Amino acid sequence: MIELKMMYNDILEAKKRNQKLLAVLIDPDKIDNNHIPEFFRKVHQSIITHVFVGGSTDEEKKMEMVVKTIKQYTKLPVLIFPGSHEQITEAADGILFLSLLSGRNPEYLIEQQILSVSKLMDTSLEIIPTGYILIDGDVETAVQRVSQTKPISQQEKTVILHTALAGQFSGKQLIYLEAGSGAKKMVKPEIIKKVAMKLQIPLIVGGGIKSKTQLNEAFQAGADLVVIGTAFEENEDFFNEIVLRNES
Ligand code: 1GP
């Protein structure tokens, strides 16, 4: 079978054109299915380009239902961002196939990946190998609790850079610098810049980004795609604030 990597190619093309991408992260545990149509009306009025769905946990097993509903209301690419293999659903367009490179827990480096193969081997989901790097956002995040790994301190800039490059050299197609959902501090722009200057593959940045100024800082520092979840959950008017691109 010839593998068509359409979504990944679009991300690469956007990077070449320096066109910045923005994903809304939807946590199936936190969204009410009935609210999805209204939520997407706002998404479509904003500069959102991608929809990520997932969370560290999916306690009510709502992932598939939420993704199916989202697919009814948007043509934006929907990628799952799973906290475990149990969250994988074919209803999405693709999956960020994550390895938690900042941690030393084999469960999230390879075990969950092996457990997901029975669902993924015959799937039409586009699989995008992603190096996931948890960085200290000044609060204990769900990723930290669930994965039982420690984030890398924002002081350890060289370790962060080398972890990202080790991911690229191992064949990851994306690197995700993650301060964790609800982080008090986003990944510092100087860290984003240091990684972006050396990395050749697209760079995703997320966690704790709550204002248009922070969003622009992340983009200017070199993030190709920014992920925002909590700020939209807490205030959907934020979609209006980010309608226009180059305004701070
Ligand atoms: C979490 O990076 C995402 O995986 C988004 O974080 O919820 O803090 O925006 P926030």
Task: Describe what this molecule looks like in 3D.
There is one protein chain. The chain has 248 residues and is of the alpha/beta class. 38% of the residues lie in helices and 17% in strands. It has helices at 6-17, 36-44, 63-73, 106-115, 117-120, 142-147, 157-169, 189-198, 212-221, 230-234, 238-241; strands at residues 21-26, 50-53, 78-80, 94-100, 126-134, 174-178, 203-206, 225-228. It has an eight-stranded parallel barrel, surrounded by six helices. Helix 9 (212-221) links the parallel strand 7 and strand 8. Helix 2 (36-44) crosses helix 3 and helix 7 (157-169) runs parallel beside helix 8. The chain is globular, with a radius of gyration of 17 Å. It starts with 5 loop residues before the first helix and ends in a 7-residue tail after the last helix. The relative contact order is 0.15. The model has no long low-confidence stretch (mean pLDDT 95). Bound molecules: SN-glycerol-1-phosphate.
